[in-house]
Amino acid sequence: MKRLAQGPTKIVFKYCSYRINGVTYNTKDRDNGRATQNSGVSLVAKTMQHSSAKDTNPIVSDMMYYGYVEEIWELDYHDFRVLLFKCAWVQNRSGIKVDDLRFTLVNLNRIGFKDNSFILASLAKQVFYIEDPIDQAWSVVLVTLSREFFEYTRSCELEETAIHHQCFTKGLNTIDHCTTDENEPPCIREDCEGIWVDNPTGS
Fold first, then answer.
1. What is the pLDDT of residues 113-124, one digit of tens each?
2. Nearest-CA neighbor of 95 among 107, 103, 105, 104?
3. CB-CB contact of 83 with 74 (8 Å)
4. What does the alpha-carbon distance between residue 82 and residue 126 come to, in Å, rounded to a whole number?
5. Phi and psi for 144 in degrees, rounded to 5?
6. Of 85, 88, 118, which is closest to residue 16 (Cα–Cα)?
7. 64 closest CA partner among 81, 40, 80, 85
8. What confidence score (pLDDT) does residue 202 get?
9. Residue 129 and residue 24: Cα distance in Å, rounded?
10. How far apart are CA 24 and CA 19, in angstroms?
11. C-alpha–C-alpha distance, residues 64 and 27, integer Å
12. What does the pLDDT look like over 98-107, one tens digit per residue?
């Protein structure tokens, strides 16, 4: 507590990439020149929410924030160091939505919370953004598995990272069984002559 009260030194170490809790994070500028993506982050924070401007009984609940790392800072408190991420956070009201298939999408161009950009790096959760093929302004959020369930110990720079997401078939009608109509015409062409093809044996 004494060291915290005294504040950090005037020297701030800045990085373009950092590994913490077994996860590698990059700044957005570093990701822009690479084939891999490690700058996406999410954060769950306690937030006071109002149902309207006239709401006199706000509630405190968890809210998910999505963004990407702009800068990585390390503050030196002499006896210990604290790692911070300076992030660009997407606006919750107009920059995040859930589609009919229950995928979470974000618009990375709608940035807010510019006065609250710093977070403790230890609180960040890594996410990936996949561009929506229908609307390129939006990106689908994919979340990495935590180390409690999955961990790679390989030292390779391009080590694989497992990701999970909502099933692509979620929300679609399921088919219990298939039925065929005897009166339905078969899928066979009768207006041309077939060609026999010999099946080669051996290799």
1. 999 999 999 999
2. 107
3. yes
4. 19
5. -80, 155
6. 85
7. 40
8. 57
9. 16
10. 4
11. 20
12. 999 899 999 9
Q: What b/e sequence results for 130-143 when a residue is b if at least 16 CB atoms lie within 10 Å of its CB, and e otherwise?
A: eebeeeeebbbbbb
* CA separation for the pair 127, 182 (Å, rounded): 51
User: Shortest CA distance to 69 belongs to which of 46, 96, 38?
Assistant: 38
- The identity of residue 42, as a single letter, is S
Q: What is the pTM of this model?
A: 0.68
The SS3 assignment for 122 reads helix
Strand partners, 140: 105, 130
Nearest-angstrom CA–CA distance, 104 and 97: 6
- Residue 5 has phi, psi (to 5 degrees) of -65, -35
**Cα radius of gyration (the chain):** 25
What average pLDDT does the structure give for the chain? 79
Within 13 A of 94's CA, how many CA atoms are on the CB side? 6
Single-letter amino acid, residue 57: N
- The rounded distance, in Å, linking the Cα atoms of 162 and 119 is 25
Task: Determine contact, residues 73/13, Cβ cutoff 8 Å.
Answer: yes
- C-alpha–C-alpha distance, residues 131 and 38, integer Å: 15
- Which is it for strands 139-144 and 104-106: parallel, antiparallel or unpaired? antiparallel
Q: Which of 13, 22, 134 is nearest to 84 (CA)?
A: 13
Q: Which amino acid is at 87?
A: C
Contact assessment for residue 127 and residue 141, using Cβ atoms and an 8 Å cutoff: yes
Reduce the DSSP state of residue 23 to 3 states and report it. Answer: strand
